[in-house]
Amino acid sequence: MPGMTLYDKLVATHTVARLDAEHVLLYVDLHIMNEYTSPQAFSGLAARGRRTLRPGQQMAVVDHVIPTHPVPAALRTIQDEASALQAANLKRNCREHGVALFDTTDPLQGIEHVIAPEHGMIRPGMVVLCGDSHTTTYGALGALGFGIGTSEVEHILATQALVYRVARNLRIRVDGRLGAGVTAKDLVIHVVHRIGAQGARGHAVEYCGAAIDALSAEARMTLCNMTVEAGARAALVAPDATTVDYVCAHAPDLRGEAGDQARAYWATLVSDADARFDIEHRLDAASIAPYVTWGTSPDQAMPVDGCVPDPSAAHDALARLALQKAVDYIGLAPGTPIAGVPVDRVFIGSCTNGRIEDLRAVAEVVRGRKVAPGVRAMVVPGSGAVRRQAEQEGIAALLAEAGFEWRQPGCSMCLAMNDDVLRPGERCASTTNRNFEGRQGRGGRTHLMSPAMAAAAALTGRIVDVRTLPASGQATRSLPS
């Protein structure tokens, strides 16, 4: 009998019952909620006269609809009536069911996928679910995380378990090391571009290889977060010393014997040497350049020295139609070099790139420079804790001096569910995870890239290869035109 993959082990240790050849009843260690996918679930519980079975294994946060205006946290308010109602309903439901809530004015409020790891809630070996597709983020710490729908939210509240269809296994090995100026964001955009938006459909993806080993825990979160854009049902990195150091630094209860026991268990969370994967890919990290999306799907991407493709060159009519639609929406002619395309807005933040490591990378690019005239650039930290740390390290002051807006935490311009939106026709260099039509505002045009690349776009007013910028601190006039 072949060995087990890491994914297989996580499913096996949380299987309450085998339902049939494809489905199990899966136990859930932690369930995370937000204001927009939970109201119907709580209403369903009330209609059936049920209570939350295990309130202590739930956590909620207001993050998608909250404005990020730079006012003190205690004064944050949601002016939009529908959004305010969503937040008020979540607060009432959490109070009635005894669920912990990071509310609008909580100084620790932030994006759900940022605050959960930073508060030590995510640990190797867990199953963590949330009504948000980017729950795959938690695989960076060796936890099985995936998004669920509203009806499933209700089921977990009532039973702490989920009827779950088991995924197949896909492994991506990344050999070598990423080059200077190339990040985990570039790597994951490259992966999504290479295997396609459906390339991991129905699979749990496990990353391994020297390049993955070299990534920080936060960089692995970026990688796992955006792997869902290839259709993955989960993304995982086996726990190692980097994982242990991160988790123990954020989980003060893991001391003494409890910590020793946890680390001994985490060491078993690896794929067996003879484990079988249904699909395997192998990549060379050294060959990957900074990546930028050009179209309206995360897989419509290219190295920064690439050009917008010609739809007429597509292999079939359906592909030609999809490419033509993307080209028309994004407003770039086929053959246009992506480097040099002017931008109106720059957004740095989101559950993909709103962590302190991301903001440090931005600061290194920005130091001693100014945002280009005519560009509106926003930095939105992923949490109150990240915001405070950036202020303590001088990052916030550096960015403000350069002309960036320093905002309060939240999902912000990742999606058009709050008042941080693009106007029709505006072009944005964005560190978010999706570039769909209207994702950041009706008629808005989004180009996904790394924090360093977005910072470079803010400084030059156009998409540019961050590796071509002169050494930090040189005069702004020496930047590429």
UniProtKB/TrEMBL annotation:
Gene Ontology MF term list: 3-isopropylmalate dehydratase activity; 4 iron, 4 sulfur cluster binding; isomerase activity; metal ion binding
BP-aspect Gene Ontology terms: L-leucine biosynthetic process
Cofactor: [4Fe-4S] cluster
Alphabetical UniProt keywords: 4Fe-4S, Amino-acid biosynthesis, Branched-chain amino acid biosynthesis, Iron, Iron-sulfur, Isomerase, Leucine biosynthesis, Lyase, Metal-binding
Pathway(s) of this molecule: Amino-acid biosynthesis; L-leucine biosynthesis; L-leucine from 3-methyl-2-oxobutanoate: step 2/4
PROSITE patterns from the UniProt entry: ACONITASE_1 (PS00450), ACONITASE_2 (PS01244)
SUPFAM superfamilies: Aconitase iron-sulfur domain (SSF53732)
EC number: 4.2.1.33
Ranges where the Aconitase/3-isopropylmalate dehydratase large subunit alpha/beta/alpha domain occurs: 9-461
Broad class of enzyme this protein falls into: lyase
Positions annotated to bind [4Fe-4S] cluster: C351, C411, C414
Catalytic reaction equation(s): (2R,3S)-3-isopropylmalate = (2S)-2-isopropylmalate
NCBIfam families to which the protein is assigned, alphabetical: leuC, PRK05478.1, PRK12466.1
Entry similarity comment: Belongs to the aconitase/IPM isomerase family. LeuC type 1 subfamily.
Protein name: 3-isopropylmalate dehydratase large subunit
Organism per entry: Bordetella ansorpii
